[in-house]
Amino acid sequence: MSSVRMRFFAASLILFFAGPFAAHAQSLTGNVGSAGITNGEQSIETRFGVNDDGDAGGRFHYDNAFADWYKLRLIGSYSRDDGEDIDFSGLTIENWFQWSEEQDDETGFNGGLRFSYTYSDQGEPDEVEMRLTATDKFAGGWEWRANLIAEREIGSERGEGVALQARAQVSRALNISAFSTDSWRLGAEVFSELGTTNDVPAFDEQAHQVGPVLKASWSSGLYIQSSVRFGVTEGSDDAMAKFFIGRDF
């Protein structure tokens, strides 16, 4: 990585952690994100998720990679509490940076860093998020992903403490052909919300969920992802399901 990017990442980390942070509710549309960036690639995507209490959330994405190390993502989000109307919840500007790239022979790994700012609606505080991402292919058709996330709220109504999350996913290519594609992956993922630095609860009071994930992609650029997660601790939702559909172009 160039010295300019090194200095940018170091300064960003200092500024990010120099303020109060707040916890974030369990994500209905979250992903274990990739660290890879392909110069010139664009995509659109929509996501939908719902939990066992009837709460629902959705997102619309537009991505554009301006270099082999930088990508911009714009996100519009909406949500619906059980029995309530659907409301717009925020606009997010997300900056992706890739600092390590896996080679064609599967040596090394993809490493990235994301910074995002969410302009919240309904009088809620704005949010800043930093995410460290890593992905790696191994043993032919296998892949692992890991994300570490920190969030903070901005504004007079902000909460206190550093909110931390961890996510991980392992998947394997399937040797099947269905629905006009042979690009299928099956795996498992873990989502963990660990609390904040000023309130780290016991493990069972934290939010930990696990579940299967299925992915497919087509030569046209179309792709889908679906997952169901189940709570394994008292502090998590009992169950949730999500579905993504998008297209690279």
Structural class: mainly beta
Kindly report the name of the CATH homologous superfamily: monomeric porin ompg
| Low-pLDDT ranges | 13-24
How would a textbook summarize the main sheet?
A: 12 strands, antiparallel, barrel
Topology:
Layout: H1 3-16, E1 42-51, E2 56-65, E3 70-80, E4 87-100, E5 110-120, E6 126-138, E7 142-154, E8 163-174, E9 183-196, E10 207-217, E11 222-231, E12 239-248
Antiparallel strand pairs: 1-2, 1-12, 2-3, 3-4, 4-5, 5-6, 6-7, 7-8, 8-9, 9-10, 10-11, 11-12
Notable features of this structure?
single chain; 249 residues; mainly beta; Porin; 6% helix
Provide an overview of this structure.
The protein has one helix at residues 3-16; strands spanning 42-51, 56-65, 70-80, 87-100, 110-120, 126-138, 142-154, 163-174, 183-196, 207-217, 222-231, 239-248. It has 249 residues and is mainly beta. It has one domain: monomeric porin ompg (Porin). The chain has a 12-stranded antiparallel beta barrel with strand order 1-2-3-4-5-6-7-8-9-10-11-12. Strand 1 and strand 2 (56-65) form a beta hairpin. The longest helix has 14 residues, at 3-16. The two termini are 27 Å apart. Mean pLDDT is 89; it is low at 13-24.
